[in-house]
């Protein structure tokens, strides 16, 4: 993407993930493309049900193959994950790529100590001895800021606070120095202070190891803090992408504009009432015709010929910057101007 001059470490091309259900086909991800370079963070933002988690679980190979149809290409360091065997994916998970989930308690086993769980992940991928794995677990706990790690290594997850459990999960995700880390709403359940500490921790680790990070969130404030590039998802598709500055400062898509209008200013208090996007996210079973956002879009009537409800807008991307909307860029400049004035003055 635009902010990188390096080769992408992860490259997702025209990814489609469809689930067969009793009610029909759920097109959870429907033609998604993006890149992430080493040492960079891609923020993926979108409302609930837009396909963020499905995209990332598919990258990791953690989908249920029985009812899932996947098309496209996922290249990790040049290797196509969609044609890799389950065994190969298992090797890559933990070693080359790993994930931090939202709910640490659900992701850590209650029956084993935190240290054992971190150590076993290390042992499995490196063949290290039990002693080496325990030492590594202590080192990782120290690195993620757990006090007295040599004692806490023998605690069970329920003996940790919520913030500590989240740190322990980060330690587990990073124990094999993965080159790609996917963080799916890792801080949503935490209070603001712990949230900030965990974001700082991820940034430090990224600087140290050059990790590529995908950070999924509903929160544009978090994106403003951590991302280099941003991908905005709506109804299983990318509606806008660009650098953080481009997307947050000069949104090109009415949906991104809506997201920004429904959150407090990123630069301190502004006397603008917040206006949440009316309506609800689209069904992925029977998505709206044309532009999937049209039933909720305040600008749909500005496009002539009723195009918004009949023709799907293409995502035009130049140098990593693009959006999928029938409005001309001049129209957007004009219509979005009020927004820009109220937020930046
Ligand atoms: N195994 C499955 N079978 C059928 N539908 C599924 C399956 N997994 C996910 N979906 C559907 O795919 C869509 C995208 O889900 P996904 O979990 O990716 O959303 P999300 O963007 O991560 O939302 P949230 O912000 O709430 O986590 C949803 O409509 C969801 O119901
Ligand atoms: S294509 Fe039409 S409905 Fe979709 S975002 Fe643009 S103006 Fe709105
Ligand atoms: Mg999700």
From TrEMBL:
Topology within the bilayer: Peripheral membrane protein
GO MF, one example: ATP binding
InterPro entries from the UniProt entry: AAA+_ATPase, ABC_Ni/Peptide_Import, ABC_transporter-like_ATP-bd, ABC_transporter-like_CS, Oligopep_ABC_C, P-loop_NTPase
Keyword line: ATP-binding, Cell membrane, Membrane, Nucleotide-binding, Transport
Family: Belongs to the ABC transporter superfamily.
PANTHER family linked: DIPEPTIDE TRANSPORT ATP-BINDING PROTEIN DPPD, OLIGOPEPTIDE TRANSPORT ATP-BINDING PROTEIN APPD
Name of this chain's protein: Peptide/nickel transport system ATP-binding protein
Organism name: Streptomyces pseudovenezuelae
């Amino acid at each position: 993407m635009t902010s990188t001059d390096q080769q992408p470490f992860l490259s997702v091309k025209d990814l489609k993930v469809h689930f067969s259900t009793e009610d029909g086909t759920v097109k959870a991800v429907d033609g998604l493309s993006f890149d992430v370079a080493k040492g960079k963070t891609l923020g993926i933002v979108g409302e609930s049900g837009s396909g963020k988690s499905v995209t990332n679980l598919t990258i990791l190979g953690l989908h249920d193959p029985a009812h899932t149809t996947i098309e496209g290409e996922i290249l990790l360091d040049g290797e196509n994950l969609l044609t890799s065997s389950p065994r190969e994916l298992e090797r890559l998970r933990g070693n080359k790529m790993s994930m931090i989930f939202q709910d640490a308690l659900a992701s850590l086993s209650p029956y084993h100590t935190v240290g054992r769980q971190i150590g076993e992940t290390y042992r499995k991928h490196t063949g290290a001895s039990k002693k080496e794995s325990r030492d590594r677990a202590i080192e990782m706990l120290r690195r993620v800021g757990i006090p007295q790690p040599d004692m806490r290594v023998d605690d069970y997850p329920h003996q940790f606070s919520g913030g500590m459990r989240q740190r322990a999960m980060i330690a587990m995700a990073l124990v094999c120095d993965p080159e790609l880390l996917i963080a799916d709403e890792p801080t949503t359940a935490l209070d603001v202070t712990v949230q900030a500490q965990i974001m700082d921790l991820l940034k430090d680790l990224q600087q140290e190891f050059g990790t590529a990070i995908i950070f999924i969130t509903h929160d544009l404030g978090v994106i403003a803090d951590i991302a280099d590039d941003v991908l905005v998802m709506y109804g299983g598709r990318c509606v806008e992408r660009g650098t953080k500055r481009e997307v947050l400062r000069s949104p090109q898509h009415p949906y991104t504009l809506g997201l920004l209008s429904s959150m407090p200013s990123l630069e301190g208090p502004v006397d603008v009432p917040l206006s949440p996007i009316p309506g609800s996210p689209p069904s992925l079973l029977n998505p709206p015709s044309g532009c999937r956002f049209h039933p909720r879009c305040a600008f749909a009537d500005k496009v002539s010929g009723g195009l918004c409800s009949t023709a799907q807008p293409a995502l035009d991307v130049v140098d990593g910057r693009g959006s999928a909307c029938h409005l001309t860029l001049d129209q957007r400049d004009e219509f979005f101007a009020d927004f820009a004035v109220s937020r930046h003055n």
